[in-house]
Every structure is written in structure tokens, then in C-alpha cells.
Amino acid sequence: MDEEERMGCDQCFGEDPEAAWAWKHEPAECLLESSHFEISIEVCPACGQAFVRIFTEFVDWEEGDDPQYWDLLPISAAEREKLKGQAGQPDLDYLMELGAERRHLKADDHGIRWAGGGLMIMPGG
Ligand SMILES: [Zn+2]
Question: What is the DSSP string of 54-82?
Fold first, then answer.
């Protein structure tokens, strides 16, 4: 786990969260897909770094303006293999463990920022 600091490149893991968010990744594997909750793996076309993208939408019954959240967590090749084996039923505890102390990108209605850890996954719907 020593290479963690070296994950990604300036495009996908640079200091500017807005730029990292705007950087277009290549979709790879889909682990889970539903209307309010999606987990997929994608890859940086520049450096090959794999990321897990977690999308959660919380349905607001009153307003219909549903809050949406994205997390983008870099993963190693070994972690990607393990997650591919969980396609259809990804282990959320495992994902939160990976994101517990790892920098990842968070995006929601309030903006885009880097988070140092503490990845929380709460299926919406
Ligand atoms: Zn990259």
C-alpha cells in the first residue's frame, strides 16, 4: 500500500478537484446499475489508473429535486480484480474500507472536492 501516494497522474489525480472531475475516464466494468445507485470501474486514458465511481441519488419525495452524489476512488489492479469478481453484488463494506483512508473525489450539488478518506456509501432509492 506504499504506492498509494503515487496513484494516478496530473490529469486524473491532480490537485484541482474541478479539473480531475472534468477529466474524461474510459468506462471499464459495471459492477452495479440501478436507477438511483450505480457502481462502475473506469480507467484514466492517460495513466491507466483504475477508479471506482459510485453514484447515489436520494429520492426526495416532496420536491422532486433529488440530491445526487458521486465518489471517485482510485483502486489498485488487485483491488480491481477483486471488485470484478463482485459484479452484480459489490461488497460495500469492502469499498468503504478501501476509501477509509484514501484520497478520493467527491461531487454533489454543492461542488467538487478532494476528500482525504472516510468514504461512505449509502444506497439511495
Ligand atoms: Zn491518470
Answer: EEEE---TTT----EEEEEEEE-HHHHHH
